[in-house]
Amino acid sequence: xxxxxxxxxxxxxxxxxxxxxxxxxxxxxxxxxxxxxxxxxxxxxxxxxxxxxxxxxxxxxxxxxxxxxxxxxxxxxxxxxxxxxxxxxxxxxxxxxxxxxxxxxxxxxxxxxxxxxxxxxxxxxxxxxxxxxxxxxxxxxxxxxxxxxxxxxxxxxxxxxxxxxxxxxxxxxxxxxxxxxxxxxxxxxxxxxxxxxxxxxxxxxxxxxxxxxxxxxxxxxxxxxxxxxxxxxxxxxxxxxxxxxxxxxxxxxxxxxxxxxxxxxxxxxxxxxxxxxxxxxxxxxxxxxxxxxxxxxxxxxxxxxxxxxxxxxxxxxxxxxxxxxxxxxxxxxxxxxxxxxxxxxxxxxxxxxxxxxxxxxxxxxxxxxxxxxxxxxxxxxxxxxxxxxxxxxxxxxxxxxxxxxxxxxxxxxxxxxxxxxxxxxxxxxxxxxxxxxxxxxxxxxxxxxxxxxxxxxxxxxxxxxxxxxxxxxxxxxxxxxxxxxxxxxxxx
Length: 492
Ligand SMILES: Cc1cc2nc3c(=O)[nH]c(=O)nc-3n(C[C@H](O)[C@H](O)[C@H](O)COP(=O)(O)OP(=O)(O)OC[C@H]3O[C@@H](n4cnc5c(N)ncnc54)[C@H](O)[C@@H]3O)c2cc1C
Hints:
Blueprint: H1 4-12, E1 18-20, E2 23-25, H2 33-44, H3 55-58, E3 59-61, E4 68-70, H4 79-96, H5 103-123, H6 127-140, E5 145-148, E6 171-175, E7 179-190, E8 197-200, E9 215-220, E10 226-233, E11 249-262, E12 266-269, H7 272-312, H8 318-343, E13 346-347, E14 353-354, H9 357-382, H10 385-388, H11 393-396, H12 401-407, H13 416-430, H14 433-444, H15 449-459, H16 462-472
Parallel strand pairs: 1-10, 5-8
Antiparallel strand pairs: 1-2, 3-4, 6-7, 7-11, 8-9, 9-12, 10-11, 13-14
Helix pairs in contact: 1-2, 4-7, 4-8, 5-6, 5-7, 7-8, 7-9, 7-13, 8-9, 9-14, 9-15
The protein binds flavin-adenine dinucleotide (FAD).
């Protein structure tokens, strides 16, 4: 395992291919600081004495080398691993107050381990062998990767092969003796500018004539022809801020301008049915990750609401306690359903464990449906101050400071400087560019709500439920009765 300083050093050696607001920038560009700090935290936590009791959660034993590795590079070998991944995601996300960044990597590698194996069984290909070789390097060198799944997609109702411009879904444009050439662009690629590797997989189910779009590979994030046009956001804290971080995020439109990928790194090339399966498999793992990070985000919002209540002196008010209980119900229901997804997980033919489809999807959907309501509760309890807080210079300017200290005082048990800090932090959390990104992530990350609905209805045995009703209504039912599982996980 490597240290965070080794991770930071590696970033400085990468080729310049990051564009922001009209400029070609280095990876130590100021606005990427928050994103880099978050990934650095995942390296620091495995050696931080404060987290020594969580070592079994934060690290794992590689099934390939037998070495101790950071769990973010692990392939799940058991239900215990699925549970540990979920718990790790919650604990680590709590530390940074949001997305922990490395779940796109762990989720795409696990999906690849399942689907490359299936593809080899069905088509006699050798993707899994290549993938395992790549994975060994990934684990041994404790690398970071993101996942570039979402295509830019052009006109939504049109399929990849129906688009006026075929590049609107990333595709293979040439097959050569030593590799393939790909062209297209992926979008919303979280943390792509601050990772070493990009795992590229298809977005959606593909039809037989869409083999050129059924492509998966791993590539260095600074490879020749890869251009990242990035957005970056982090809260702006007052000068002299003493809190941890700053934490933030960065997402990239990753352009593949006729990029060469050597065969060793190609994990799917033309098998349309497997392309769709890989898209779904990543989504399933990723929605399971959300059963860890979303409860963490709700924990942070619950803490923020409770802190605002304390600052305002309204902690004991009945309506406040009711709203806090509502937040706790959301986090614990989502987390609990994630546990159910892990416990009901199954072993795929590759040996990799996969969480349950139904529980992953209902949990993620419940989290997504509640996201704006959670921010609504914090805003309600906080009052308007996070939106209109005077800037930090006015807290220290000799002319305005006495007024700030006099008029910002609220609960007499809370020092006025802590009142200011609390409002500044809640402003960053709920009323900043970063907050807006987190809200959209809460709705769309891991797939839009409609995609979850499709997965839920596709795996739910509605006929069986209807038969329960028919029996109760005295209508004759010939079908056998299934009690224990109303949701069917598709056979792996
Ligand atoms: C903050 C953030 C981080 C993200 N991180 C990543 C990441 O790291 N990697 C990655 O690959 N992706 C990432 N995503 C992408 C995420 O998975 C997508 O945003 C999500 O799948 C929705 O896709 P879209 O944004 O293209 O919206 P669209 O798919 O365009 O959805 C917009 C609306 O159109 C509807 N719609 C779309 N297609 C159709 C159709 N054919 N028929 C009817 N209705 C349709 C949808 O249901 C939705 O209501 C991230 C997104 C966000 C917001």
